[in-house]
Amino acid sequence: MGSHSVFRPQGRAGVSGSELETLVRSGLFAQLAPAAQAVLTVLHNLRDPDTGLTRLSYRGISVYTGVQSSATVSKAITELRKIHAVQLMVGVRLGGITRECNVYRVTLDDEKLVKMCSNSHRELRHARERERAIRFTKRLLRQAESRNVSAGSLKQRLRPALHATTYNCLQEPKEFKTQSPLP
């Protein structure tokens, strides 16, 4: 590669087969603190391919994640343990002053984590559906305003087009109660 070459990854997004993909696509990864995201990524990428374990000190975690505070590293690990993404095996004390590095196992296939991912994905999907319904409704309202469509006619067009629960949330907005121009 020449000095002016630029790395361009090949392939489509989301087809890499990464074990982190499920966590990312579910939206659960985005809910983690940035430090927890960084720690999980580092522990996952530095694990031993044979054992699946990562032996790393807090200082090592700090170097690879850019998280400088030991307290923040500790909080990140605690957060990852709470969602069952990481198991921790505390290093053995050596002579009372020091101890071995902790050992971590990234457990992205843990049953509880998978269930949390499923729930998060379901919530994310419902939020997208609600957003689509809101955009659809606003588009119809703009069209109705530009064509001087009656409120009753517009309500009839909205009923079949929207999901029942979304329609109930949007039923009888102020625009239908008054015939004044829309903002």
Mind explaining what this structure looks like?
This protein has 183 residues and is mostly helical. It has two domains: 21-109, Orthogonal Bundle (Arc Repressor Mutant, subunit A); 115-173. Helix content is 56%, strand content 8%. It has nine helices and five strands, in the order αααβααββββαααα. The strands form two sheets. The protein has a three-stranded antiparallel beta sheet. A two-stranded antiparallel sheet has the order 3-4. α3 (34-45) crosses α5 (70-82). The radius of gyration is 25 Å and the shape is elongated. The model is unreliable at 167-183 (pLDDT under 50).
List keywords for this structure.
disordered C terminus; 183 residues; 3-stranded antiparallel beta sheet; two-stranded antiparallel ribbon; Arc Repressor Mutant, subunit A; elongated; mainly alpha; 2 domains
Main beta-sheet annotation? 3 strands, antiparallel
Helix percent reads 55-70%
Q: At the third CATH level, what is the topology name of the largest domain? A: Arc Repressor Mutant, subunit A
Total count of domains: 2
Specify the CATH architecture of the largest domain.
Orthogonal Bundle
Q: Which strand order do you get reading across the main beta sheet?
A: 1-5-2
The end-to-end span amounts to 56 Å
The average pLDDT score comes to 77
